[in-house]
Amino acid sequence: MNDRFIVGLVVANHHGVLNRIAGLYGKRGYNIDSLAVGETEDPRFSRMTIVSTGNRNIRTQVVKQLNKLHDVVRAELLDAPDTISVEHLLIKLKTQETGNAEVVSLINRYGGKILDLGEHFIIADVTGSTQHIHAFITQCIPFGILELCRSGSLALSGGTEKILSAHQKNKFN
Amino acid sequence: MNCSGAQILVEELIKHGVKTVFGYPGGAVLDIYDELYRNAHRIEHIISAHEQGAAHAADGYARVTGKPGVVIATSGPGATNLVTGIANAYLDSIPMVAITGNVAVSLLGRDSFQEVDIIGITQPIVKHSYIVRKVEELEFVLSEAFWLASTGRKGPVLVDIPKSVQKELCEYPGSRRHSSPPSSQVSDLDLTEALKFIANSKRPYIYCGGGVLAAEAEEEIVSLSQRLSAPVGLSMMGLTAIPASYPLNLGMSGMHGKYAASMAQSKADLILAVGVRFSDRATGNVAEYTKNCTVIHIDIDEAEIGKNITSVVELCGDAKAILQKLLEKLPLARQEEWLETVAAYRKKDECREKELYFTPGNILRYIANAVPPETVVATDVGQHQMWTMQHYRFERTRTLLTSGGLGAMGFGLGASIGGCVGNEKKPTLLFTGDGSFGMNLNELATAVSQQLPILIVLFNNGVLGMVRQWQYMFYEERYSSTTLGRKTDFVQLAKAFGADGKTIHSMDELKQAFSQGFPSDGPFLLDCRIDGNERVYPMIPPGGSVKDMMMQQGGEAHE
Question: Is A72 found in the same domain as A99?
Fold first, then answer.
């Protein structure tokens, strides 16, 4: 877990970009633990958060190599202690005929929301750190997990120094 | 003005100063070839025998001229045949723009006839690539492609143009120009730090690579060397950066480098590395390599700094500008003791072969003296390539075309064609081996039809010499698939292609051939029958260090 690191990127929003980035990790033998992408406030650009594992050498190489890609506006290692990182979980659990108080209380304890409640299932939504999500999932196992879906980490640097924005001066301007 | 995509392409090529393109026509580039036909008076197209040959020719052209080489191929097999050529340019940071046709936009993604995803196939081996789906994007894409290929760390850029886009019309202003942003400035703090390490060094060593050629920083390297009493070792890509006759030029370092270069490197207390990437073939064991020294690394590619070697000072930027800044502040330092040590190392590299023996070293030394120093020299890959690095004395920059990073057998003939064309079709040399030459000898047809005066010196030993050398050294002489047992008559072969040649068995025959001269309007092949047991020495085994350096053994017969 200590070797886990997060890279935040602003990239051009067109087809093939994800391929290039995933390909770079692949060809250099870096592992991707999770990857999340979404459009920014400027539709020409997307923001990615990639979580990987690797030593210091690998971390700096990943970021330098990413910054060489023409489609990458800027990649930054988000390694400061004040980095905000959250993950999003959707989980579908079996419900008990005897009542669901225990499941509901578990979801509440982890700050989750119930999105749907069916005859035999309950769908909940939990947001938090990766450890938080991990702990919640472990607690859910005894109830019976039907399926689950995780977003991968999203991360922003704390403060205003390492701003990764579509509006910063970049190579497309 | 309304123009078709094909017209825009040709206009953009001309606008970017392209005088010659290499390529091979086909269904998906018919419109481009139609435009080339119309503009034949403005831009020359050279058809190869195979797209790979065209890609290597564009590469050779770029190495000689310093400008991006351009290659055109059709979709599908035409595009896949470029792959080795693109990878070669990528690993040696050679500026290249590869244009491929593709099926019409409406047919893309349907496994149409001669459709491949060439963007996907080449993704790991290009600096950048584009598929142009709208003709309106074409001008921007092409001008960005040329800019990307030839700025920063140079490299190949691929532009895939579907057939429908070549036909479509759009407004073409033809005015778009990419300008380079100012290259990143090295901080004064880093420069001061570098100067401090240099001032404290008693045994400085300059390690100079292809980046010096790309930055045209050759003079600065010599000034630096003189100022510091620093000998210069060269990577294969940097071999022509300074003249072989410069007294502190120790020649190539690395696996098959010169004894003096490897020894001086290992005894140095400071390595000033300029435009090099410390490939495994150059360093051997990385820990041993930097055990006794600190490294100042100058490179334009930030990712190269710290990738293979940890340096104490990292200077990222244009080598010429950085060296000039350093030179402004560097005092003259005479390191007599160090210079004496280096001179003693050099003695070991002195030739002890008798001149009459028909050995690779003698052949190369003879030819180097027999041709003008500005002659462009291409090589293929293998033993003959290493012999060329060791024994041919390069005096002028950009006169060596060789496949460094990729080590692609079959590179040489295509590269010599491109090099010859890029050098006003002046007499050009190709050193090759019977293995490498066999891979792409079809390009003899191109050299003949283009009337290119390429002298092909074939080191014919009937074996795959370099692989065989490894089998001799590391596989207990189990010569698996390296004894070729072919009966190819290379002189007859040259004749069949419309060229000519001679079989050479001795130094006398070689000298006689040179005294008779070679045609000025076509290639000529010298089939030099050398001994199959010739090996390349010195050799530092893979992952080894100078301590493991193997010198000529059992070769006393030549002394």
Answer: no
Q: Which residues of B are known to be catalytic?
A: 51, 113-114, 163, 466
**Per-domain residue ranges of chain B:** 2-171, 188-349, 360-541+553-558
Complex confidence, ipTM: 0.90
CATH topology of domain B360-541+553-558: Rossmann fold (3.40.50)
Specify the residue for token string 């500026």.
B95
Alpha helices in B434-506 (DSSP H): 434-440, 444-449, 465-474, 490-496
Question: Which of B119, B306, B307 has the CB atom closest to A16's CB atom?
Answer: B119
The answer to whether B307 contacts A61, with C-beta atoms less than 8 Å apart, is yes
pLDDT of B192 over the 70 cut: yes
**What is the reported pLDDT for B249?**
97
pLDDT of residue B87: 98
Judged by CB atoms closer than 8 Å, whether chains meet at A64 and B181 is answered as no
Residue A96: the pLDDT is 82
Q: Give pTM, 2 decimals.
A: 0.95
Distance CA A88, CA B508 (A): 80
List Cα–Cα distances, B346 to B200, B355, B369, in angstroms.
Answer: 25, 20, 21
| Structure confidence at residue B10 (pLDDT) | 98
Q: Which residues contact A54 (CB under 8 A, 6 or more apart)?
A: A3, A5, A30, A31, A62
pLDDT at residue B410 tops 70? yes
Q: Do the Cβ atoms of B303 and A20 come within 8 Å?
A: no
Residues 6 or more apart whose Cβ sits within 8 Å of residue B305: B297, B299, B311, B314, B316
Interface mutation vs chain B, best among A58, A64, A74, most B CBs within 10 Å: A64
Q: Is B306 in Cβ contact with A60 (below 8 Å)?
A: yes
Question: C-alpha B465: how far from its chain's center?
Answer: 21
CB contact at 8 A, B240 and B399: yes
